[in-house]
Amino acid sequence: MRERKSVKFNLQKQEHQNGHLSPFKVAKLFDPDASWDKDQLGDVLHWIRQSLALVCGLLWGAIPLVGGIWFILFLLLSSGIIYAYYALVLKIDEEDFGGHGALLQEGLFASISLFLLTWILVYSLGHF
């Protein structure tokens, strides 16, 4: 009996080391009392920004919108949503994660690339 418990514990320990302990819980995304480490929060902010970039790029290209004002609107919308998420929803102390600059920069350049690529491709395909 004791042997099975130690085998089970060792398997759980190996799963934890491999990063396969348990699936990420969606409820944690909206829980202000949840604990976050810097990498987890950075990943969540990064993927929120990428999702928003894809949606805005598809929308801007499909409408079709042109001009720099729409690019600036994407940047403001993206940064505003990220700020509102970590400051108002999660209510974290930004100084623990490197300040506002570090959190607002998380995933920014990749999202700009994805937004522009999606916007240009969808806009171009609509004009053939």
UniProtKB/TrEMBL annotation:
Identification of the protein by name: Rab5-interacting family protein
Source species, domain of life: Eukaryota
Xref: InterPro entries: EMC6-like, RCAF1
Keywords attached to this entry: Endoplasmic reticulum, Membrane, Transmembrane, Transmembrane helix
Pfam families cross-referenced by the UniProt entry: EMC6
Assigned protein family: Belongs to the EMC6 family.
Record membrane topology: Multi-pass membrane protein
Locations listed in the record: Endoplasmic reticulum membrane
Transmembrane segments: 58-88, 108-126
GO CC, alphabetical: endoplasmic reticulum membrane
